[in-house]
From TrEMBL:
It catalyses: beta-D-glucose + O2 = D-glucono-1,5-lactone + H2O2. One of its GO terms (molecular function) is flavin adenine dinucleotide binding. PROSITE patterns: GMC_OXRED_2. Its EC number is 1.1.3.4. The keyword Cell inner membrane does not apply. One of its GO terms (biological process) is secondary metabolite biosynthetic process. This is glucose oxidase. It holds the Pfam family GMC_oxred_N. It comes from Polytolypa hystricis (strain UAMH7299). Residues 1-21 form the signal peptide.
Length: 610
């Protein structure tokens, strides 16, 4: 109950500070209905942040740290309470797909996936998606972030050198214990990690690893072209160990709530839960505040003003909805929905990307590779996600990489985008295509992620997807859940790449180290190749690893971008977007560390603007 108590204290302090009232009952304040609040307080904050998720709480914590500014965070979902928050923090897996802590959104049917639909999992509680994620802590490579800068224009500071300090600031790293490190060859790059005392998002290791990973590690390390860097934190591809977002002392989930919300008692930091932001309010094109309403009573709308800025941190799925509902988006879509246009910004909700995966089944035909005994291997219950993986580029995966890159480069950029895509969005895709052809030819790009878990076969993750989807409002009901369209496999290059990734898994399973155990492919089966393999991919691919990005991409306006290099929404004043939606290009990494990083960088940008 300590956690809720801390929240109560913060709310109480703010109300006292603002309205100079007597102390009210904590029970009332914790769930203060906004109507009561609106009557009591002036309704103005320096910053109004939409969404108490991964980015939103990072911003709120950092912007209130020095006591200069007041911040209100408005969150649609709830603050999970005992015992449920324990389930989240123990990270025992249930929370991954628990209707109590996620949205219930499903994509529209995907024609290239045999019309299957995909569940769109994103977190719904204070902490957002960081509360339900798989806790893998990886960054992606130097080339990928240099690509973020390249798509941003010549003055961009979002290249590797410009973001590394924020990666270091965003999490506090603790190395694995010595016995574990030695037994499993775990190394790390001390220059790439930070240990800031003011950072409570932790990156650490469990005390246990499964010894069956040792023969897998050794077989993979012998494949031609596979590098073994210290780890990936310095922006490298290869076979390496990665930490987990986990408290190094109690081995519980470390997430935006524990890192940037719990135990913070500041009179200038308030979070209101179970209220939905309906739209941003403008004076001309200057954001002045937001309209919001109780989640269960959207008719009962209220407003709150922002003295300095409105910052949208509602995540990749809902940020475009809020922008479009506010009159910022493709003019024709806004017209269909009868929403008055504030800024015609065709890129809002376009450029949507996510990682895609499937599983290839193998079993050992006779015996299994020996798992060496590991002395001092700790407690298996401290494990929570894969800590070992191969993250590799197309030239290592496939001899066909040049042909695939050339084929992709030769496409007409509009060919596989939705019909009627705005010319600025097509121009942005043309840049993406040029950049991507370069990435397909580079060894230092995490095109494939093969998490190693100590068993034959397993998950194959395509980390760079060239089919771009859309997330738009439903014009008939803009406040209903948005329409998510992955447009999975609409660009045939994604099929080619997934087929190469599967072939790489086959090559790895055919390692001489494994020969005596007769590995057998059970699904789809070794004889499934060519067009039949592509059909199997269509039937089984999952077009998300729950890493949606780019629906408010940081790119120039004439390139279909939504925010500029300072994350200000094009064509507006005092309105920023800071969350996963601003990433213009997928990093070859799970996206939480990149989100924490970009929020930390945004804090410096926002403070510098004062
Ligand atoms: C199941 C799952 C597994 C994952 N596994 C990993 C992993 O292992 N490693 C990794 O690095 N990443 C992982 N990720 C991805 C990572 O967690 C996300 O990329 C990241 O947390 C997104 O942060 P965000 O701030 O953009 O959005 P979120 O953290 O989702 O925050 C958005 C917040 O805005 C709120 N909101 C939305 N609309 C409104 C509105 N209208 N009004 C008020 N509030 C609103 C939402 O309720 C939410 O709290 C996973 C994600 C999921 C869902
Ligand atoms: C999702 O559905 C469950 C019921 O199955 C419900 O409790 C939960 O509130 C829903 N979540 C959202 C965000 O609507
Ligand atoms: C550790 O790495 C060395 C050098 O690459 C290798 O010889 C050894 O087998 C590895 N040990 C394990 C446990 O993988
Ligand atoms: C909050 O503070 C208490 C008391 O110091 C501590 O036990 C708890 O772990 C803290 N919680 C977090 C998330 O830091």
């Amino acid at each position: 109950m300590r956690f809720s108590f801390a929240h109560t204290v913060a709310s109480t302090a703010l109300l006292i500070a603002v309205c100079n009232a007597a102390v009210a009952k904590p029970a009332v304040l914790r769930h203060a209905s906004i109507l009561e609040r609106a009557e009591q307080v002036e309704g103005t904050y320096d910053y109004v942040i939409v969404g108490a998720g991964t980015a939103g709480l990072t911003l709120a914590d950092r912007l209130t740290e020095d006591g200069q500014y007041t911040v209100l965070v408005i969150e649609y979902c709830h603050l999970s309470k005992f015992p449920f928050f324990t389930v989240i923090q123990r990270s025992d897996g249930r929370n991954f797909n628990d209707p109590g802590t996620r949205y219930n959104i499903t994509s529209i049917p995907q024609p290239e996936m045999n019309n299957r639909r995909q569940a769109v999992w994103i977190g719904c509680c204070v902490g957002g998606s960081s509360a339900i994620n798989g806790m893998v802590m990886v960054r992606g490579t130097k080339e990928e972030y240099d690509g973020w800068a390249e798509l941003g224009g010549p003055d961009s500071t979002w290249n590797w050198d410009g973001i590394l300090p924020y990666f270091k600031k965003a999490s506090h790293f603790t190395p694995p214990n010595e016995e574990l490190a030695e037994a499993f060859n775990i190394t790390w790059d001390p220059n790439a990690w930070g240990q800031d005392e003011n950072t409570r998002i932790y990156a650490s290791f469990p005390t246990y690893q499964n010894p069956t990973m040792i023969p897998m590690y050794q077989a993979l390390s012998k494949l031609p072209g596979v590098e073994i860097p210290l780890d990936g934190a310095g922006g490298n591809s290869g076979l390496f160990w990665n930490p987990t977002s986990m408290d190094p002392v109690n081995f519980w989930r470390s997430y935006a709530r524990t890192g940037h919300y719990d135990n913070i008692t500041r009179s200038n930091y308030e979070v209101i839960t179970e209220h939905k932001v309906l739209k941003v309010l403008f004076d001309g094109t200057t954001a002045t505040g937001v309209q919001f309403a109780p989640r269960n009573n959207l008719q009962n709308a209220l407003t709150v003003k922002a003295n300095k800025e409105v910052i949208i941190a509602a995540g990749t799925v809902h940020t475009p909805q809020i922008l479009q509902a506010s009159g910022i988006g493709p003019q024709s879509l806004l017209g269909q929905a009868d929403i008055p246009v504030v800024v015609d910004l065709p890129g809002v909700g376009q450029n949507f990307q996510d990682h895609a995966y499937l599983s290839v089944g193998f079993r050992w035909g006779s015996g299994s590779p020996p798992a060496p005994p590991v002395s001092g291997n700790g407690d298996p219950s401290t494990l929570s996600g894969p800590n070992l993986g191969a993250w590799i580029g197309l030239p290592v995966i496939s001899d066909d990489h040049e042909a695939i890159a050339a084929r992709y480069e030769a496409q007409d950029p509009a060919e596989y985008l939705p019909e009627g895509t705005d010319p600025t969005v097509v121009a942005g895709y043309a840049d993406f295509q040029k950049l991507h052809a370069k990435l397909l030819r580079s060894k230092n790009v995490n095109l494939l992620w093969l998490p190693l878990m100590g068993a034959p076969g397993g998950i194959i993750m395509s980390m760079h997807v060239v089919s771009h989807g859309t997330i738009n409002i439903d014009p008939g009901n803009p406040q209903a859940e948005p329409i998510v369209d992955y447009r999975a496999l609409t660009n045939p290059i994604d099929l080619d790449i997934m087929a190469e990734n599967i072939n790489f898994m086959r090559k790895y399973m055919a390692s001489p180290d494994f020969a005596q155990y007769s590995p057998t492919e059970t699904s789809p089966g070794a004889d499934v190749t060519g067009e039949a393999l592509k059909d199997w991919i269509r039937r089984t691919i999952i077009p998300t690893n729950f890493h949606p990005i780019a629906t408010a991409a940081k790119k120039p306006r004439e390139k279909g971008g939504v925010v500029d290099e300072n994350l200000l929404v094009h064509g507006t004043e005092r309105l920023r977007v800071v969350d996963g939606s601003i990433m213009p290009l997928l990093p070859g990494a799970n996206t939480q560390q990149p989100v924490y990083m970009l929020a930390e960088k945004a804090v410096d940008i926002i403070k510098a603007a004062q």
